[in-house]
Amino acid sequence: MSHDPLIPAHPAPPSQPLPYPLLLTRAGLSGFPSPAQDYEGRTLDLNERLVKRAASTFFMTVTGDSMETLGIQAGDLLVVDSAIEPRPGHILVASVEGELVVKRYELQGNRTFLVSGNSRYPPIPAADLKCQAWGVVSAVVHEFLV
After folding, report:
1. Radius of gyration of the chain (CA)
2. Which InterPro entries match (predicted)?
3. pLDDT tens per residue, range 51-79
């Protein structure tokens, strides 16, 4: 995890509408859409789409490779909501012995663990260490070309 300061979401972000055509796409092959669909007047505001509760949302940049198989890579931007109650299966930002980490929250038997998405890193037994959940990752912004 980056040790940079947390970046809080703006409490009342200004609207930043971007062109957002109606066109839906599949990851496989499909028919060709109508070119007229590109000109429909819809917009997309990423604040509206990714930040559900601005007062409890912050952003963090990921370092390291412990979550790669879960789709979170070094350099990705995490949208983290501290108002979401963590449940098994959620990906969390947590403080473990004073270090911020991103891990999946899991129950194994009656014990809670913070688990990496990389088999090189063993599960962290949350009850055995000083752990505190900071928030649930609600979105990941991953850039392909940087």
Report:
1. 18
2. LexA-like (IPR039418), LexA/Signal_pep-like_sf (IPR036286), LexA_repressor (IPR050077), Peptidase_S24_LexA (IPR006197), Peptidase_S24_S26A/B/C (IPR015927)
3. 888 889 999 999 999 999 999 999 999 99
Q: Residues 93-123: pLDDT tens digits?
A: 999 998 999 999 999 899 999 999 999 999 9
Q: Which sign does the torsion angle of CA 119, 67, 146, 7 carry?
A: negative
Which residues fall within 8 angstroms of residue 117, CB to CB, at 6 or more apart? 66, 67, 68, 69, 70, 71, 72, 104
- Residues with Cβ < 8 Å from 143, sequence gap 6 or more? 75, 76
Q: What share of the chain is helix, strand, coil (3-state, %, to 5)?
A: 15, 35, 55
DSSP label of 46: H
Answering whether pTM is above 0.70, one says yes
Residues marked as catalytic: 66, 103
